[in-house]
Amino acid sequence: MFDDIGQTIFNNEIVGSASDFNMGIEVETIRVNSAGQLTKEPYPKALGNQRKNHFIKTDVYQVQSEIITPTARKSFDAMHYLMALNDTLRNALEPNELLWPMSMPPVLPQDKRSIPIANVDPKQKAYYEKWIKTRSDTQELPVGVHLNVSINDDVLRTVWESQRDKYDSYAEFVNYIYIKLAQGFGYYRWLITYLFGNSPIAERNYFKLDEDQPSHEVRSIRSSHYGLTSDVTHNYRSVREYVDNIEQNIKDGNLFSEAEYHTSVRLKSMNGDLTHMVKNGTDYIELRMLDLDPTTALGVRTSAVRFFRILLSYFMMTPPITTPDKINLKLDQGRAMNEVVAMESPTQQTIYHHEAQNFLDQLQLFGATIQWGPEYQEILDTMQDRLDNPKLTPAATLMDHEVDGSLMSYGLSMANRYQNRAHENPKPFTGFEEHPDMDADELRQRLFGVMGKPDNYEKK
Question: Is residue 314 within 8 Å of 306, Cβ to Cβ?
């Protein structure tokens, strides 16, 4: 079952530390008023200067708020950060404001040009304006969850010591592991869309009347070609070819910049320089395929994070999904499968049920081999239930709340519930107003004090 890397991790009895990845979480949301319309309020004053705040920012549009947690050494510490920052954002809103709990936006104005672009620095704003004008005035509106994940440095060093004769450099070794992760997630995105897709319909004015649009409820508009995509070539054969492909698309005018490479899996460097990854190794992987979960105030549940940790461990410790000469065709197949799954009816059994079952069986065998705990078995049981009964999938349960082709009533109900709950906090965090540019260590101290600080990650 294991490849050489997985066998080394298993033999050195470091599966536990190898499976608890460093993680930062980004959650995008849309601010609305009490009637469910896009807010006209500016960036919340209580959060300080929006150009300086590192942890609660504005995305493309001024109505989009984005929580960005510090990178924590344990994934569930990132969830603690997310909970604290979510509470901070909610308590900073104006009295008539709410956070829309779903990925697809509420009813939009007919003229989308009336939606103000974020008040960011002039260069970034010019980029947003150019993108909206030349690409789409709706594709940037759906919001979701991104997981930024890196492998424990001590685990990498331990494995490297036994594998160094197989690679020309430590950077090549690190890149091999990260491209393997990217390939696994890139191919199996269709399964993630089935298990977690949660954007089945669009509200009024998202699509123009004469525009191509889904004819029925689906699993995930956001994860389909109707969502945020880049119509460019992809290459995940190696980190070097990944970088060369993006740079070639930019040179050919297909992309304005690397930031426009809107794909479900991105390899990242902390300094933002793509070529740095080739020479020095990938720093982390960004997983961008999760829709918001409206059944939790945070937009993502710990169970989803736990399932992603299972996938990360599996892809890290097992052989690549195919050979290098076939990988890009395999990923093209995965993207086509994802489009099919995203457009399936939420209550329909996926046509890829057999392949999904085979993969869940592989995860079950993997879990039995590494002797995972009951919390992981429970997650896999939940995923099995969703595969066996499509009516248990998030998109299907969300559609139970549809009224006359709309989820506005449900969205407002949940938004008010979460807002009222946040206001029950007797001492919400207010430190950003005076000090918006605090760093991760100060944020940790201010949020948690001596009450069990999360361990922030700093690359060695």
Answer: no
